[in-house]
Amino acid sequence: MRRLLSILLFFFFSFFCFSQDFFEFLEPSAKQSVVHVGGYDWGACVDRITINTGNLVSPQEIAAKDFKVNQILYPKNTNIGMEKGFLPVTDAFASDSQGNKITAPSNFITLLMDVHPLLDNSSPFVSISFSSRFKNYYGYKISNKKLGINIQNLKGFTNEIAAKFTTSEFEYTFSAPEEEKVKLNYASYIPQTDSSQKIPLILWFHGMGESGTNIYQVLFGTKTTALADKKIQGCFPDGCAILAPQCPTGWLETTDKGPGNARVWAPVDKNAPANKVKKPITKLLQKLSLDKDKPREDKIQFAAVSYYTEPVKNLLYKYLENHPEIDQNRIYVGGCSAGGYMTMNMMIENSELFAAAFPICEYYLDSKINPSKIEILAKKPFWFTYALNDDAVNPENNSIPTIVRLNQAGAENLHYSEFRNVVDLSGKYLLNPDAENDDAEYGLPYEYPGHWSWIYVLNNDCIDGNFTLFEWLSQQELKKD
After folding, report:
1. Within a 10 A sphere around the Cβ of 180, how many other Cβ atoms?
2. pLDDT tens digit string along 348-399?
3. What's the angle, vertex CA 190, arms to CA 213 and CA 195, rounded to 5?
4. How many whole angstroms separate alpha carbon 231 and alpha carbon 248?
5. Please, which contacts does 266-271 make with residues 24 or more away whose CB atoms are closer than 8 Å?
6. Tens digits of per-residue pLDDT, 19-62?
7. Boundaries of every domain in the chain
8. In which element (H, E) is residue 373 found?
9. Spelled out in words, what is the top-level CATH class assigned to the domain 162-473?
10. Do the two domains 11-158 and 162-473 of this chain adopt the same fold?
11. pLDDT tens digits, residue range 170-214?
């Protein structure tokens, strides 16, 4: 009976509704909240919440210690929520409707949340297993007994950079025999410029963790929003357009089919310390060359072609058709993890479309790249990025031997950023924030998993000589025949 009572107390009624389901500038109405989501190196993080109390409150009455913020998990089609945890409040103050601090009485109050890679409940996205049973986003209950505040009506989420992106979907129909249809969500960004010059485009492929149907997980899962921020955009004279499609399953799903007519997944590094791909296949694909006259060394097994190659290519064509301001001689392709595999896949299958590529901790096994393909890729500009302690993809089986072979094939525009591990370079986050002066961990930067080398790329911290990765990228264009 006591257990049943505990479960019943865990559930409570509240109001969880969005007037918007996207990250634009929002102003909370009376008894509503707006959640500010920041894009961080480790993903999305709720860093501020602005509430409208419905009545004026003096700044002197506001104290962070009096506020309690519950994160609530809501099943679909219901407003009965489960308490998931609490968000620690570090500061609270009177503000305007956008969360800016003011000194006059206001009906708006903004709460600042603690921000750190290790904090639980910081992400607004529901990404647990069987998450299809739940709403895409958590809800929030903000209470303050001293001020009589109890707000559970969430108007929506906001982020200044994400608001610059347009979201849409693209449907592609495969030709015979089955005329299958596939739908891709995508986010895109076009910079505002007064110049009459055409602008370049980055085609960005997310990692496995951002697959699905919620396009905002693509923008926040690995801080893709950074591509539209001034640090990277400033590397291009007139800015750079971004096209970021979302894969509903995984980029490693191939055109080949196995038992039960199910599509198989591309072979990945089974010798990595920890294989973190969601659907690895158990056997490598056995595809033998039909050309018996080719040299023996040219019969290396191929990684199969991604099922999403044609849909993505046709999305790109359609996007270019709708945006004549894009310079088709300056289309770049990059991505991380499974998106790094897709980057290599697109370069192998359609290298003529791209002026340069920047694969990151990429899954494409070097043993699956035919020597004749290496000869083609060696003519293209590449910048690889990886960490030596990657525990998901061993770079010694992927990026490193590919770099060696490209060099041997005479690559003239080949760069790479090799890191020992992945640590915070901003100085904001420490491995142990509570360490004392005499502790061994005192002052050490926070260390991320070794697979997360995309952090260096999206902070534009990859440098070779006198230029960064994106400064280099801005100089690349298709060679005229």
Report:
1. 11
2. 999 999 999 999 999 999 999 999 999 999 999 999 999 999 999 999 999 9
3. 175
4. 30
5. 266/303, 266/304, 266/306, 266/341, 266/363, 267/303, 267/304, 267/365, 267/368, 268/341, 268/363, 268/365, 268/393, 269/363, 269/365, 269/393, 269/394, 269/397, 269/398, 271/394, 271/397
6. 344 567 789 999 999 999 999 999 999 999 999 999 999 999 99
7. 11-158, 162-473
8. helix 371-377
9. alpha beta
10. no
11. 999 988 667 789 999 999 999 998 888 999 999 999 999 999 999
**Regarding beta strands 356-360 and 326-336, do their DSSP bridges make them parallel or antiparallel, or are they unpaired?**
parallel
d(CA 164, CA 41): 19
CA–CA dist 472, 466 (Å, integer):
10
Residue bearing tokens 């980057």: 343
Query: In a 3-state reduction of DSSP, which class is residue 81?
Result: strand
For residue 236 the two structure tokens come to 């291009």
d(CA 334, CA 327): 17
Say yes or no: domain 11-158 is CATH 2.60.40.2180: yes
467 membership: H or E segment, kind and range: strand 467-468
Handedness of CA 398, 399, 400, 401 (dihedral sign): positive
Residue 39 identity (one-letter amino acid): G
Tokens encoding 214: 């919620």
Q: Is the pLDDT of residue 298 over 80?
A: no
